[in-house]
Structure formats: structure tokens, C-alpha cells
Amino acid sequence: MNNQHLTKKQRRLLKKEQKEQERLQQARQKKIKKALFILLPILLLAGIIILFAKNYTPEKNHPGTPQLEILANEYDAGMVSMADGVVKYTFEIKNIGIGDLKIDSIWTSCHCTTARLTVGDKTSREFGMDKRSTSQKIAPGQTGFLEVVFDPAFHGPQGAGSAVRVVYLSTNDSQNKKVEVKLLANVVQ
Fold first, then answer.
1. How far apart are CA 130 and CA 45, in angstroms?
2. 80, 113 Cβ separation under 8 angstroms
3. Is there a single domain that holds both residue 21 and residue 76?
């Protein structure tokens, strides 16, 4: 329609209608900008999370957490004669975590007691009260065997009576940094 043939009233109405349409269009554009301002960062963040989640594997990116388990941390040998020789007992040390369990040190509470750790086909040297350092690993799901040897005759006749011998292990398990197993005996001559 040509503006020249319109009445003054119609031109005002047309102008008012055009202004209203412009205002509505500006309002729509504002809403779209606001929605994009909110949605774009959310979509970008979601994409980044999905990308990292897709490429993340615990074994590759995180060494995992070990968890030490010893079902029986105490052995009572009962009445032990000095004449019968040494007492041996093997404690099972299992890694029920998802990372390697590292045994850094092994030591005993007395010279009359020694310990060896066997993991797979590897057996450590003998550890006593003074020999401590080692670096053995027990893989997730694997079991290590700690053989403890107690010599009831080591202290002679004054060693008779109740004996509690402790073997200590230091590990990388955050809940069990220092672990102990005990061998109990009543030593007789």
C-alpha cells in the first residue's frame, strides 16, 4: 500500500504498528542473545566433559588406590618347646584395591624373629629387626605370602614364658601405612 494515499490517522496507525513490530523484533533478538549467552557456555562445558570422559581410563590416567587386606593378623602357636626348633607361620597379604600395593619396609620386633615376603615367583631376602628396606609390589587382586619364623631358643632359658613377636610392614595404602602381624607363643624349655 502506498503511504501517499493514506489518511493521517492511518499513517499514524501504520507508524505505530511498525514501531511495535520493531520493538517486538528487538525483544526477540534480546531473548535469543540471552539464551545463547546462557546455553553456549553450558554446551561448551558439556562437550568438554564428554570429550574427557570418553578418553579417560583409570589405568592410563590414574594409578589407582591400593587396599591391603590381611584376613588373620595374629597367629597363636600355643605351647612351644625350645627343643623343638623354630616355629613358622605364613600370613596372607592381599591387595583388594585397584592400584599396586607397594611394600616399602619389613622389620621385626626382635632378633629371634625373621620374615620373608613372597609375591608370585619372587621371594624377598630375610628381614629381621635391623633389615628393613624392600620394594615389592602386590598387584590388584594378587596375594603375597609373609612367612614369619620364630626361634624360641634364641634367648636361651631366660626366653621362657609368654612371647609376642611382631612383624611390621610399611605400605602405600593410605588407610594402612604401617601394618603389623603378630606371632604369639608360650615358650617352655
1. 56
2. no
3. no
Q: What is the pLDDT of residues 85-101, one digit of tens each?
A: 899 999 999 999 999 99
CA distance 103 to 168: 10
- Can you give the residue range of the structural domain that contains 83? 68-188
Length of the chain: 189
Structural contact between residues 153 and 147, judged by C-beta atoms closer than 8 angstroms = no
Is residue 95 within 8 Å of 64, Cβ to Cβ?
no
Domain boundary among 31, 56, 81: 56
Starting at the earlier edge strand, list the strands of the sheet with 122-123. 68-69, 87-95, 143-150, 113-119, 122-123
Q: Are residues 179 and 86 in the same domain?
A: yes
- pLDDT tens, 129-161? 887 777 899 999 999 999 999 999 999 999 899
CB of 150 closer than 8 Å to CB of 86: yes
Distances (CA, A) of 142 to 66, 98, 112, 162: 11, 11, 29, 34
- Overall pTM surpassing 0.70 (yes/no): no
In a domain, 181, yes or no: yes
Which residue from 146, 142, 153, 156 is spatially nearest to 183, judged by alpha carbons?
146
- What are 149's three cell numbers? 619364623
